[in-house]
Structures are given as C-alpha cells and as structure tokens.
C-alpha cells in the first residue's frame, strides 16, 4: 500500500442523525449484522501480548472499558453512535505497543447501560470519562478523541486540565454547527451511497481491501442513547471564548478529503489553540484521508500519534491497576 503523505500546514433534524447510523449498521460490503456478539478484545484482534482486560461499568467507573497494552495511559474516545470495538484493529494494535490503552463506551453504547433519568451533554460525557479514568487508576493521561469524541476530549481539557497530558483530536471541530450540514447530507443518502462515501472514490478504487477494515456493529443500537448524543452535540457551546491561559499539548489530525469535517475546520481549531500564549499545537493533514481515515492509514496515524506523545512525556501519569 502506498504510504500516505502527511501534509504539515502552518498557522436538523434528529432523523438525519439517526439515518447516519445506516453507515454503522452495515459492513462496507453491505452485509447485515446478523452475527452473535463478540467481545471488544476479540473484535479488535487483541492478542495475549496486549493483555486485554474487560471492566464492566460500576458506580465508581460509569463507562464499560477495555484496557490493554503497557506504558503511559492513552484514553480513546469514539465518535457519534460508535462503540469501542469499531476502532480500526490495526490502529489499536499499533498504539497498544507503547501505551496502556483505555477504550470506553459512552452511556447507552455497547455494554454501558443508559441512565434513563439523566440528560446527556458533552460536559456530562466528559465527566463520565474522567470518573472512569479515576476508577481505572488513571489520574492523568493522554486523550485521543475521534469526531464527536474529539469534542468530548476538548471538554475534558476545559473542565479538568490537570488530568490531561496531551490531546489528539482526530477529524473533529471546535463547534458542531459547521458539521451539521454533513449530517443532513448523510440523512438524505441511501445505505449504498453512504458506504460509497466512506473513502475518496479514486483512492477507494485503488484500495478495495480498505472497505473490509470497517468494523460492523455487533450489538443492537440504543436509539434513545443516540438521540441524546445528537442533542448533546447540538447543545455544545463549542470552544470559542472558553480557552484559558494554558492548554495541554494538542495534535490535530485531519483528512484532505474529509467531507464531514473538512480540513478548514481543523485549521480553525488549530488557530483557536494557537491563540493561547505558550500553546503547543500541531496540525497534520493526511493526503486522501477521509473522515474514516483510521481505516485507510492505521499505521501512519498511529505513528503520528506516537511521535507527538513521545516528544511530550508525562512522567506524573503512572497508571495504577483498578
């Protein structure tokens, strides 16, 4: 496979959101998900060397978790309507070689129960992540968020900066409003059109095997949880005017062909962090990358994350066993 080029750049309706889930209810080949549930560790192909441990949600650890690997803690936050087994297996395997990964499911997703009485906001999701980190013995760690997970990651850094060694923000934005048109567009698509839109057409034609990397959903979807996530994104105040005098180191990774969250939104996000005196922010754009580019370039993305984190050690982040 051709090595991707990492370009360094200087300084509606709820129904639409739900139809987006057609993407997640199919494999890239269009197969229905009529298969028995499997563990997240099995779905991700985690081997014994990664020492995967599944930890169910509990009162002091509200989010169902999969912990694997050894090294500085790295918490991974999924996107809208996603579950932890839907990360790219190669991406996870590469990161687990040098980090203790914590993969989490939000409330109502995967095996995490939904609190029917509680509203969901990005702030409450951030609080759930922080409480789960504490329950996992992670007092401070690196945070990686994809899409909506990047918004949750930003909220974590705003509410508890002392718990964050660094942020890696993958195909995300500092505000949901400019992303909503893509949700509307997805809502108007049929399932085959959605699958065809995963990767740039020319790239996809040259790499037909990439479609097989997209993980199918293995558990029924809780639409109440998804509708609350959608409302949470719509109600998010965003980053504007909320950054303090200091921020953690920030790596922003975008895809040149991401039509859900175009690179201009990543550039605006970079500029917001760069405006903070003394900030440490980097933006990388992967040529031919889509919103789902972890399935296109898992090794290149993992290397970019690892290189960034390795240059920004966090000695005080010593993971403890829960």
Question: Can you walk through the features of this model?
Answer:
By secondary structure, the chain is an alpha/beta fold. 32% of the residues lie in helices and 14% in strands. It has eleven helices and nine strands. A nine-stranded mixed sheet has the order 1-9-8-7-6-4-5-3-2, with helices on both faces.
Task: Itemize the secondary structure elements and their pairings.
Layout: E1 6-8, H1 14-19, H2 40-43, E2 53-55, E3 65-68, E4 73-77, H3 89-96, E5 100-104, H4 122-135, E6 141-146, H5 148-159, E7 164-170, H6 180-187, H7 191-196, H8 201-206, H9 223-235, E8 250-255, H10 263-274, E9 281-286, H11 298-310
Parallel strand pairs: 4-5, 4-6, 6-7, 7-8, 8-9
Antiparallel strand pairs: 1-9, 2-3, 3-5
Helix pairs in contact: 3-11, 4-5
Shape annotation: globular
Number of strands: 9
Overall pLDDT score:
85
* Measured distance between first and last alpha carbons: 40 Å
Largest sheet strand order: 1-9-8-7-6-4-5-3-2
Largest sheet: 9 strands, mixed
Please write the CATH class name: Alpha Beta
Name the descriptors.
322 residues, alpha/beta, Rossmann fold, 9-stranded mixed beta sheet, 11 helices, globular
Quick rundown:
The protein is of the alpha/beta class. 32% of the residues lie in helices and 14% in strands.
